[in-house]
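User: Small ask, check this?
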Amino acid sequence: MYMTMFLGTRNGSLGETSTVLLLIGGLYLIWKGYVNWVVPVAMILTVGVLTWVFGPAGLFSGDPIFHMMAGGLILGAFFMATDMVTIPMTVKGQIIFAVGAGAITVLIRLLGGYPEGVCYSLLLMNALTPLIDRFVKPEIFGAGGNK
């Protein structure tokens, strides 16, 4: 099952079936410096940890590998969550954004009526981006003085 998900020899929506190709594309964007690696790693790890902890048969009984490769998580984490216009300005804010998006994805997948929650989690966190930017402000250039 994992190999079919990894190689993309399963059914699914356009662009979300082959985990290996999405990872190659995401790593290329990181290598070229177009995206920061923090957002996709934080989002994917959050989904993995939370689905493992809150599995269907009780605590620590989930299948994190399945949830990290299923659906549009890799697509959303590398190509949608890293959009420079909609994520917070600071790295700390981006981590808050990614962890929140991962947590909402898990909440929708495990408790909601939808099989996939990446798009809704990103939309909700995009709505919270101005609030995150308000509370996690970047240091003003030149305002720190000599230390």
Summary: The chain is about 60% helix and 5% strand.
